[in-house]
């Protein structure tokens, strides 16, 4: 085995294999990635805090374990980032809000603890909007994260900092979370792989806290993984998934590293009848061709009750969030961008006004989920767009009330996945004429995360890996 010529270009699997075989030291891996961070991060603002000294110290400890003949873990030396709303005791969990700049947690989130136990090394925190309240990555505490393919365009959000850190080679793995596309939207915008698992398969970092957690967050949100390679995502998920004894809703299921079931894929084109962009059409063509060559049977069909899934997510999320993020509750206030977005969007959003209406929408979720479960038995994987439009210009969501209030419509298929707590992985397919990446998402049934991985692997094998990229 020979080490990769530029360590920051290497995959997580390549790094771990090289470190475990003593072909390269963990210290060399960390040094190469820290150098890349100090070169690139000032241009894109992806990482809010960089752990230079602590990362180097942890790398030396891994090297010492190897020298003693000990097993340093399956992710030995792999550099990763942690989103600002996931607990890591090395720094404050700010959620991108000025009022939490000193909120250093007492414990690591389970997903972080399992990365550490596997030998991975945190290099920094990933930027996000205040409490994830925009599909953008900007706040008053840390500033803006820029898309490395075009500084004028948004990198998406809310896990935009971690997505950009992965896309530019600053880390091999990013830990984020996804309530309404917050992993897949930025992954699609910057050309990396973004995975949200079936709800409950990753232990929640909020489950053991004492304050109430809105029901929509409990049901729609999950931690997830950003990498440059589907195989890396699969590798990391196999290590960090499962119940932890603290989250009462987390479950442990087997995670097969392959799929030998029916290879039937539903291609979802223009699911809402609004027309399909040329870029999305080309991305879906590329994905379908890739899957067809790999032996998948393809059919163009729409899943059932899709409109109801999107509407259910919208009504439940806006009803709960209008109370949780009432501006008068926050001291100091939310940042200017998040505050302005909520102000603009508030007047254009539809809320549920009575307990009866609220309960009825939650009750319908079981009906929609049952229909989808029937559908995925016939079509084990669904391939569709992450976003119905190209990555927008930065702050385009703040243009006016109508724009802010309808911004969610860009991501309707993505939020339907959140509503149903299904697994989905965004995977790149190439680049468009505008120079920005293109991609699709592979969606599978509840608990069938490995099926989505299988389809994504076949798409990646044909379409290639788009990153790392050096910012323009």
Characteristics:
13 strands, eleven-stranded mixed sheet, Amidase signature (AS) enzymes, alpha/beta, two-stranded antiparallel sheet, 472 residues
In short:
The chain is an alpha/beta fold. It has helices at residues 12-20, 26-44, 52-67, 110-117, 160-167, 184-190, 215-220, 230-240, 278-293, 306-324, 336-346, 355-378, 401-406, 412-420, 449-463, and strands at residues 47-50, 79-83, 121-126, 138-139, 143-144, 173-178, 193-196, 222-227, 264-267, 297-300, 381-384, 424-431, 437-444.
Could you characterize what this model shows?
With 472 residues, the chain is an alpha/beta fold. It has a single domain (7-463), classed as Amidase signature (AS) domain (Amidase signature (AS) enzymes), CATH 3.90.1300.10. 39% of the residues lie in helices and 13% in strands. The strands form two sheets. It has an eleven-stranded mixed β-sheet with strand order 1-3-2-6-8-7-12-13-11-9-10, with helices on both faces. The chain has a two-stranded antiparallel ribbon with strand order 4-5. A hairpin with a 3-residue loop joins strand 4 (138-139) and strand 5 (143-144). The longest helix is centred in the C-terminal third of the chain and has 24 residues, at 355-378. The radius of gyration is 21 Å and the shape is globular.
């Amino acid at each position: 085995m020979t080490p990769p010529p530029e360590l920051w270009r290497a995959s997580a699997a390549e790094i771990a294999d090289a470190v475990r075989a003593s072909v390269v030291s963990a210290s060399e891996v960390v040094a190469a990635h820290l150098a890349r961070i100090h070169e690139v991060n000032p241009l894109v603002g992806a990482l809010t805090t960089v752990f230079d000294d602590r990362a180097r110290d942890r790398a030396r400890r891994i090297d010492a374990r190897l020298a003693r003949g000990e097993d340093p873990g399956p992710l030995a030396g792999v550099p990763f980032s942690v989103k600002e709303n996931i607990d890591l005791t090395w720094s404050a969990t700010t959620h991108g809000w000025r009022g939490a700049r000193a909120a250093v947690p007492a414990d690591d989130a389970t997903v972080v603890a399992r990365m550490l136990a596997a030998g991975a090394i945190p290099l920094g925190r990933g930027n996000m909007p205040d409490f994830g309240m925009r599909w953008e990555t900007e706040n008053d505490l840390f500033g803006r994260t820029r898309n490395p393919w075009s500084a004028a365009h948004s990198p998406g959000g809310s896990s935009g900092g971690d997505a950009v850190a992965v896309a530019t080679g600053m880390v091999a793995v990013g830990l984020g979370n996804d309530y309404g596309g917050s992993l897949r939207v930025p992954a699609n915008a910057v050309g990396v792989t973004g995975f949200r698992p079936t709800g409950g398969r990753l232990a929640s970092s909020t489950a053991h806290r004492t304050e109430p957690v809105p029901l929509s967050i409990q049901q729609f949100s999950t931690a997830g993984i950003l990498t440059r390679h589907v195989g890396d995502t699969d590798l990391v998920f196999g290590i960090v998934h499962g119940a932890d004894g603290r989250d009462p809703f987390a479950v442990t299921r087997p995670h097969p590293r392959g799929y030998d079931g029916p290879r039937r894929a539903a291609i979802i084109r223009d699911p809402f009848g609004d027309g399909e962009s040329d870029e999305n059409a080309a991305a879906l063509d590329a994905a379908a061709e890739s899957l067809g060559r790999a032996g998948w049977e393809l059919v163009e069909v729409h899943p059932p009750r899709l409109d109801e899934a999107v509407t259910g997510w919208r009504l439940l999320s806006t009803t709960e969030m209008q109370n949780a993020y009432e501006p008068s509750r926050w001291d100091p206030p939310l940042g200017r961008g998040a505050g302005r977005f909520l102000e603009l969007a508030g007047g254009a959003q539809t809320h549920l006004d009575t307990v009866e209406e609220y309960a009825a929408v939650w009750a319908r979720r079981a009906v929609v989920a049952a229909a989808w479960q029937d559908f995925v038995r016939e079509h084990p994987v669904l391939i569709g767009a992450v976003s119905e439009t190209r990555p927008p210009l930065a702050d385009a969501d703040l243009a006016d009330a109508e724009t802010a209030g309808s911004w969610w419509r860009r991501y309707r298929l993505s939020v339907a996945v959140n509503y149903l707590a299904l697994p989905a992985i965004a995977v790149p397919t190439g680049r468009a004429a505008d120079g920005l990446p293109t991609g699709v998402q592979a969606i599978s049934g509840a608990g069938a995360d490995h099926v989505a991985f299988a389809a994504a692997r076949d798409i990646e094998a044909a379409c290639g890996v788009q990153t790392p990229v050096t910012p323009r």
